Amino acid sequence: MEFINYQQILYRYGAEGIQEPQPGEQGLFEITDDTQMTLFTAEGLLRARVAQATAPQSSIVGIVHHAYLRWLHTQGEDNPHFANMYGFHNDDGLLIQQFELFKQRSPGLTCTAAMMNPEIGTPQNPLNNSKGCGAVMRSAPVGMIDLGVAPFQLSCEIGAITHGHIDGILPAGVLAVLIQEILAGQDLEEAVQSSLQVLRQQDGSGGLVQRIEEAVGLAHSDLPVQTCYKKLGEGWVGDEALAIAIYCALKSPRDFRQGIILAVNHSGDSDSTGAICGNILGAYLGRSALPQDWLAKLELCQVIAEMGRDLLTAYREDEEWQAKYPGW
Ligand SMILES: [Mg+2]
To answer: What's the CA-to-centroid distance between 32 and ligand 1, angstroms?
Structure first.
């Protein structure tokens, strides 16, 4: 999908565009590189939580970087510079045992190159000048777990492992706050405004603030969707991908299926805008709102659900929260 434009989508799937996931070779709805990396973010964060219990000074970002090295291994590469620290195969953990994750689903070159670097990228010492959406599209788990640190900063630092441009990094921070605010019980509109408030305090955030405000305005307008897409961009870069996902979520706040259909029917990076919109609406509507016929054929569905449950442990112990989000 991300490699065909809107006209080609209409030609292939009909005048309404694509309406259903298309089964792959095994008859399953295949996850994309976005979900693969999101899973490794989740595993890194879960391990960081375990490490914190025994060694409070553990670096969360360092542990997530290690998780991304395992992701790199699944994609057929190993970083020799970290071999002494972790060993070459990085063959521990739940995800590395999932053979499905060893399939290449067009991994982002920025992520692959950054993970081969001898150094770990940080906001202060960026490895490149990339503003691609590879940082934001994997960052939702940061908003799902409480590690005792501000999710915005943590998510930006995790984003900066691979992406150096501020428009690649900041959207990762915004998505984490947005997910956290939603899970804390805010309405979708309120959560977007809360994340904008945090964003406005950051240096160099003016462009992203403007883009998200535009997405909110367009979601409230009657302009045709494809007209809005022309204004919001194509989603290859982080700020555009997040803006498109927020626009689609606000356009369809009660209907997960409809929101995803909206988020994948355009000429740009449609698997990533679909993934991010799915993160937002999934958090907002809860597991019971996900289309059961999609889940039934979803590749690695159980692993994804297990990761989600583990991340949400802190919330799931809260009875009030459970009543509000049945099925998580
Ligand atoms: Mg993509």
So the answer is: 8
Q: At what angle do helices 188-200 and 206-219 cross, to 10 degrees?
A: 160
191-239, pLDDT tens digit by residue?
999 999 999 999 999 999 999 999 999 999 999 999 999 999 999 999 9
Ligand 1 centroid to residue 272 C-alpha, Å:
4
283: left (phi over 0), alpha (psi -120 to 50) or beta: alpha
Give residue-wise pLDDT tens across range 105-164: 989 899 999 999 999 999 999 999 999 999 999 999 999 999 999 999 999 999 999 999
pLDDT tens readout for residues 272-328: 999 999 999 999 999 899 999 999 999 999 999 999 999 998 777 788 777 777 766
Each residue's pLDDT tens digit, 48-71: 999 998 888 889 999 999 999 999
What is the 54 CA–ligand 1 centroid distance (Å)? 37
Q: Distance (Å, rounded) from C-alpha 312 to C-alpha 46?
A: 10
Question: Token pair for residue 126?
Answer: 């960026």
How far does the centroid of ligand 1 lie from the alpha carbon of residue 268, in Å?
A: 9
Give distance in angstroms: CA of 139 to centre of ligand 1: 14
Gap from CA of 326 to ligand 1 centroid (Å): 31
The hierarchical CATH code for the domain 30-324 is 1.10.4080.10
Separation of CA 314 and ligand 1 centre (Å): 31
Residue 155: CB atoms within 10 A of its CB come to 30
What's the 148 CA to ligand 1 centre distance in angstroms?
31
Cα–ligand 1 centroid distance for 234 (angstroms): 11
Return all residues near 2 (Cβ < 8 A) that are at least 6 apart. 32, 106, 268, 269, 270, 271, 272
What pLDDT, on the 0 to 100 scale, is given for residue 3?
A: 76
Q: What is the DSSP string of 48-104?
A: HHHHHHH-TT--HHHHHHHHHHHHHHHTT---GGGHHHH-SS---SSGGG-GGGGS-
Ligand 1 centroid to Cα of residue 137, in Å, is: 8
Q: How far is the CA of 271 from the centre of ligand 1 (A)?
A: 5
